[in-house]
Design a protein that fits this description.
Elements: E1 2-7, E2 10-14, E3 19-22, E4 36-37, E5 40-42, E6 57-58, E7 62-64, E8 68-72, E9 75-84, E10 87-96, E11 99-103, H1 114-120, E12 125-129, H2 138-148, E13 152-156, H3 171-176, E14 182-184, E15 187-188, H4 191-194, E16 201-205
Parallel strand pairs: 3-5, 4-6, 5-7, 11-12, 12-13, 13-16, 14-16
Antiparallel strand pairs: 1-2, 1-15, 2-3, 8-9, 9-10, 10-11
């Protein structure tokens, strides 16, 4: 699987059978909305235009914009609604090629029930917002990482060039995690690469 960071809260996952895009941002973010081809688009908040700009994608992507379990083109997506101050945001578990990826989208409160977390099983890759203000801050994000104990952490939703939303820089989260991280243009990963991993990897992807 190839994982690319499109900026803000948006990612692209390329499997052998499908291309999945999550939370494509709108122009009000200050960034140019992502475009291109997608077989599946996953939206944590379909009514919030900041995270649901789908018009730039070609073809007729399969849209997942509500809680539930979905199977499409070798990808299983399970959506779990989390109550936030502003309403509900759906977090998503993506499963493909024997990998489990938990995407926390743009939540501010990680208030998932313990039994729901246990049902998700062992998480290979955790995508977590770290920019504070409207989402988890560095300290709270680090606590969530310790609770879930993934093999790989990919931070999202932090301050970067062009973003108009008030967010903290990525450095604060890196410091919380012990100042040990990798910077990559994209993550190319197979299950066998992390099966016997002894340490959690912090991977910062270039948008």
């Amino acid at each position: 699987m190839h994982i690319q960071y499109l900026g803000f809260s948006s990612f692209k996952f390329i499997t052998k059978d499908a291309t999945v895009v999550t939370d494509p941002y709108g122009k009000e973010s200050g960034l140019t909305p992502p475009r291109g081809n997608a077989d599946i688009i996953v939206l944590a908040e379909s009514t919030n235009s900041l995270y649901s700009s789908t018009s730039s994608f070609s073809g007729t992507p399969f849209l997942i914009d509500s809680p539930g379990e979905y199977d499409k083109s070798g990808v299983t997506v399970t959506g779990i609604p989390l109550k936030q101050e502003s309403g509900y945001v759906t977090i998503f578990l993506l499963e493909s090629e024997d990998l489990k990826i938990l995407n926390l989208a743009h939540i501010k409160d990680f208030n998932i029930k313990e039994n729901e977390l246990e049902e998700l099983g062992e998480i290979d890759i955790l995508i977590v917002p770290v920019g504070g203000h409207s989402v988890l801050g560095a300290s709270d994000a680090a606590k969530v990482v310790n609770q879930i104990e993934p093999k790989i952490i990919i931070p999202s939703h932090y301050a970067a060039g062009g973003i108009k939303i008030e967010l903290d820089p990525i450095d604060r989260f890196i410091k919380e995690m012990g100042n040990k991280n990798e910077e990559l243009d994209k993550l190319i990963i197979k299950k066998k690469d992390i099966t016997n991993a002894e340490e959690t990897r912090l991977v910062v992807l270039t948008a």
